[in-house]
């Protein structure tokens, strides 16, 4: 009996020792995990960050593109749109900005200065100056792009610098790639992607409806332009070209008539589209 009792006691002691050892091991493991957690978390964030960085259309390496946004005029919220555009594009590509905002007279004075565009890789026009009558000024302005300066032209740029310019030669519409005499009523625009394999349209959905819209009527698409998307506000009964690229002399031009409302301009689809257009125009996206 005494031997049996001793054996039982020894077995209990062994189980107790095993439990203590197990508890010590678990405590050590817990401390190890606590020490490792920050490193694991940092690794996880780095991996995720790399994934997010890949969503940028252009990697932030090398020399940034220098862009000048020329904006101003009536009928649009250009004060807010200058921020929406510049900040939105710079989040997607390595672009540094200067901004000029002014009325028609101040804009004409700025764009008449010698070498006004020399410091920039691309000029982005988001303006509305429809009453200019000085054909010599418009021809000189267009010549900047015919000689090779890249351009991005948005929305009411298509109604600027040609309606009241006399003569048959329309230098500004030739640079734009389209001629637009008017726009339709305010309504969301169903945009159809016509060129899913074009670099500018990769990432743009097959169809996209803008939150709000003002569809421009296009009477002429110039032979030098390639249409990338069309838009409709009546369920597809009638379409107008609304996204395109153009070659004007030595210059590349990206254009879209979309963008009247801040709500549309703030959309990822819109900012991604314009960013890719800017990169294409500057020869950084093929």
For the record, the CATH class of the largest domain is: Alpha Beta
List how many beta strands DSSP finds. 13
Mean pLDDT: 85
- N- to C-terminal separation? 92 Å
How do the helices and strands follow one another from N- to C-terminus?
HEHEHEHEHEEEEEEEEEHH
Strand portion: 15-25%
Major β-sheet profile: 9 strands, mixed
Spatial ordering of strands, largest sheet:
2-1-3-4-13-12-11-7-8
CATH fold label of the largest domain? Rossmann fold
Unreliable parts: 1-20, 32-54
Shape: globular
Write out the CATH superfamily name of the largest domain. Class I glutamine amidotransferase (GATase) domain
Structural class: alpha/beta
Helix content class: 25-40%
Q: Supply Rg.
A: 30 Å
Architecture of the largest domain, according to CATH? 3-Layer(aba) Sandwich
Number of helices: 7
How many structural domains are formed by the residues?
Answer: 2
């Amino acid at each position: 009996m005494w031997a049996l009792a001793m054996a039982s006691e020894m077995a209990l002691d062994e189980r107790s020792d095993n439990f203590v050892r197990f508890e010590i091991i678990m405590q050590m493991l817990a401390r190890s995990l606590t020490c490792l957690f920050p490193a694991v978390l940092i690794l996880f964030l780095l991996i995720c960050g790399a994934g997010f960085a890949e969503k940028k259309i252009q990697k932030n390496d090398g020399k940034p593109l220098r862009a000048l946004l020329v904006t101003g005029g009536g009928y649009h919220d250009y004060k807010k749109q200058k921020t929406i555009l510049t900040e939105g594009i710079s989040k997607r590509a390595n672009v540094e900005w200067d901004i000029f905002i002014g009325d028609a007279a101040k804009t004409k004075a700025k764009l008449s200065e010698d070498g006004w565009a020399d410091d920039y890789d691309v000029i982005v026009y988001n303006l509305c100056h429809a009453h200019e009558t000085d054909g010599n000024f418009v021809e000189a302005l267009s010549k900047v792009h015919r000689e090779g300066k890249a351009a991005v032209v948005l929305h009411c740029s298509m109604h600027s610098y040609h309606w009241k310019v006399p003569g048959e030669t329309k230098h500004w519409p030739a640079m734009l790639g389209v001629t637009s005499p008017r726009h339709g009523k305010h309504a969301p625009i169903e945009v159809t992607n016509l060129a899913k394999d074009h670099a500018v349209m990769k990432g743009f959905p097959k169809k996209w409806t803008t939150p709000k819209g003002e569809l421009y009527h296009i009477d002429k698409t110039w032979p030098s332009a390639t249409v990338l998307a069309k838009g409709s506000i009546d369920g597809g009964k009638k379409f107008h070209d609304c996204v395109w690229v153009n070659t004007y002399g030595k210059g590349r031009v990206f254009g879209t008539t979309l963008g009247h409302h801040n709500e549309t301009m703030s959309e990822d689809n819109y900012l991604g589209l314009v960013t890719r257009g800017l990169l294409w125009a500057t020869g950084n996206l093929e």
